[in-house]
Amino acid sequence: MCIRDRLSSNLLLTSFIVYLVSTGFFAVATSGKKGPTRSGKIAFTLAIIGFLAQLGYFFTRWAGAGHVPVSNLYEYTTFFGMMMVLGFLIVYAIYKNNVLGLIAMPVALLVIAYASMFPDEVQPLIPALQSVWLKIHVTTAALGEGILAVSFATGLLYLIHATDFSKESKTRTWLEVVMFSLACVVGYILVGLLFKATGSASTIEYVAKNGATMTHDYAMPVLTGPEGGKVLSGSGAVIELPNFLNANKVNTVLWSIIGGVVLYVLLRFVILRKRLAESLKPIARKIDLETADEISYRSVAIGLPIFILGGLIFAMIWAQMAWSRYWGWDPKEVWALITMLFYVFYLHMRIQRGWIGKKSAWLCVGGFAVIMFNLVFVNLVVAGLHSYA
To answer: Quick check: helix, strand or coil at residue 154?
Structure first.
């Protein structure tokens, strides 16, 4: 590893640690009054320092790679996490609410930690990505999604604050589903680190549909493998999958769920002994419901136009240049469209039908679920022209 690559990695690690410390200060700040406190100001300052360190990582990696570092899942997910922090910093500067930091910062930390599960080697761009539109399309789309993610944090806070956990309800049930989903992300990270430390790698060779001989390198024990696969090293597959599914990446999703189940059970029944969402109730009470609802709306109103510009308009221009068509119903294209339509629906129902409060908050949570489905499931499982990610 050259000095520049080492500097880039150290800057990213520094930003992660600073974000973590910032979260701790936000936790201290929320134990006091609702408004800005000394701890809240320190937490915000640390978040800015962490963002600057991550920005340093971004530009040093760019200089080392010779291209903007958003060309694979490691780079894009890291950049997405950085844009989430940027969106939070903007919102905090306006509202000065410490509770938002205690929710938004951990979500950004999860995204960045999730990125670390993917190969971080700098790779040369394939011909399809050698375009100025890479930096224009991808960075703008990620910025829009990062701002939209802030509405998830405030929407979740609103729902937890407004829900009576002593009574059985659909809201209480679905909030726990959301918390379980977050537990799956954390569980995947922990499982990945565990298997990386114990050396559970395997390699399976198979013949693709086009007749080419391909290999899958597994970082985790093999649960799902390609149809007709031959084990070159490590263990064989428990279940064989057809070639239109990426067996290696389905394996990753399954381990995420397994890790999430184990972590959720430990937290729910052993450590906290209460619903995960209910355990956040004392924190959520410290944010005014009207303020949380307003932040959610403004985040969508700002983030959606940016996402449409980067995720659809710039994407179609680049698609025309690269593939001689503006639209081709590729899975990533379809889900970018679904993301846009979902948030357009949110704005329509809020403005035209007066959906505020719980209905509005649930749409914000659902919108982030669509974004994460696109980032995780579509990238990891579904094959398409964007599979280079």
So the answer is: helix
